[in-house]
Design a protein that fits this description.
single chain; about 210 residues; Glutaredoxin; three-stranded antiparallel β-sheet
């Protein structure tokens, strides 16, 4: 089954819409073309998704994707000040790991911030710990983060809603599942519940 069809089927079964985290009241300063390009590459099923990366974790330790080899990786791009989409998806990731019992030890949750300006190590440490104690939170320079995000076809941009004191970050919100070698296996649309993700995660656990 092509990736686009698989994602659509998963979204329909989960009762969620396949969409980006966008706010209607936020002005746009560009970025839509880039978001559309990356979405097109992802949905084509022909583009390479993901790749090796190295960033700093919430304890200041440099971590690479290869550090997680042997585990299934649940990868998410977001930011700690996200008002709704990120905490919903991160909570589902934590619930998924707990629901699998001992098999949950085979999963490594990883959060990459899209807001290094505000998401300090201390902020990230407290933020991800609220969802699961084994979360690894990663950050870097804006250039480093954009390079990694783009490799996963994730688009993001800062926006400032009218009258707001600070900015938000509009971003595509997927939970990526990587196999034990760090290769892209599949993704889950925003709002996919833990029990639905568990179906495909169990398939990967059996395959490897």
């Amino acid at each position: 089954m092509r990736l686009a069809a698989a994602i659509a089927a998963l979204a329909a079964a989960a009762g969620v819409s396949f969409q980006v985290s966008m706010r209607a009241d936020a002005p746009r300063e560009g970025g839509r073309e880039e978001a559309a390009r990356l979405m097109g590459e992802l949905m084509s099923g022909r583009a390479t998704v993901g790749g090796a990366f190295t960033l700093l974790d919430q304890n200041g330790t440099r971590r690479s994707l290869s550090d997680f080899r042997g585990k299934l990786v649940l990868l998410y791009f977001g930011y700690a000040y996200c008002p709704d989409v990120c905490p919903t998806d991160l909570m589902a990731m934590g619930q998924l790991i707990r629901s699998l019992g001992r098999d949950g030890e085979e999963l490594q949750p990883v959060f990459i911030t899209l807001d290094p300006q505000r998401d300090t190590r201390e902020v990230l440490r407290d933020y991800v710990a609220a969802f699961h104690p084994r979360f690894v939170a990663l950050s870097g320079t804006e250039e480093e983060i954009r390079r990694v995000a783009t490799s996963y076809k994730v688009s993001f941009e800062k926006v400032r809603p009218s009258g707001a004191a600070t900015y938000l970050i509009d971003h595509t919100a997927y939970v990526f599942l990587l196999d034990r070698q760090g290769r892209f296996a599949t993704l889950f649309p925003p709002g996919t519940p833990a029990e639905r993700m568990a179906v495909m995660v169990r398939e990967q656990l059996v395959l490897q």
